[in-house]
Amino acid sequence: MIRIQREAFDPAAETAKLLGKSRGAGGLVTFVGIVRSASDRGSVDWLELEHYPRMAELTFGKIAQDAVARFALIDIAIVHRFGRLAPGEGIVFVGAASAHRRSAFEATDYIMDRLKVEAPFWKKEVGADFATWVEPRSGDVADRLRWKDGLSE
Amino acid sequence: MKIFFFGPIAEIAEVAEQEVRLPEDIANMSELRQYVCKARPLLADELNKPGVRVAINGALAFGDPVISDSDEIAFLPIVSGG
Fold first, then answer.
1. How do residues B23-38 score in pLDDT, each as one tens digit?
2. Which residue in A33, A54, A135 is closest to B82 by CB distance?
């Protein structure tokens, strides 16, 4: 299940939904990405998240398909938000259900690593005296390279 | 042809979406890029930053593909989702 939405999501409800669809699963791992209240520049008032809907859907679809195949998942969920987000709010929810725990842990990690460098989303951090587009951390690319697939370049 | 700009690129372009008729002498991506940079000099610096990618019809473009007037082109700054 993949959703891209402006509205807030409820991690507990998303987890329950995924659990309900994961018959035969022995483990379910979830991750929630959260808006930080402070950045290098200071206290963050809000984030503005922009995206390219057509490409975001294609990208999430491909990442999900690759994850299911690679880790033999029973089901997965990706929910990503756009628009204005306040500190403490969830930005992204990823869940993976599998027969045994290891592949669910790894799949969640894998999906996030790919999403960070492939999904067409851009965030702007806004504080009292700054409004700055966020650059990826240098570690994000290294994280992505841990998984040697889907690298078409 | 529809051209999309995002994030810092859209901010400098002062527009997120633009409908243009593809000039007949433009056949591929590198020519389009030059055309856009020439038409909007302020954008050139931003588009030439390392890490800026291009998508055609929602899929990342590699190399210098042929483009047509029916394509949807997007100029993508380095992404920062999640």
1. 999 999 999 999 999 8
2. A33
